Amino acid sequence: MAENQYYGTGRRKSSAARVFIKPGSGEIVIN
After folding, report:
1. How confident is the model at residue 18 (pLDDT cuts 50, 70, 90)?
2. Mind spelling out the 3-state secondary structure of 11-25?
3. Range of the domain at 19
C-alpha cells in the first residue's frame, strides 16, 4: 500500500467495491 492512502472496502451481497483516496492529489479511484 502507498503511504498516506486511505483504503475503504464496501461489500454488497457477493460484489465488493474498493475505494482509494489519496490526500493531496484530490484523486478518487473507484474500481
Report:
1. low
2. EECCEEEEEEEECCC
3. 1-31
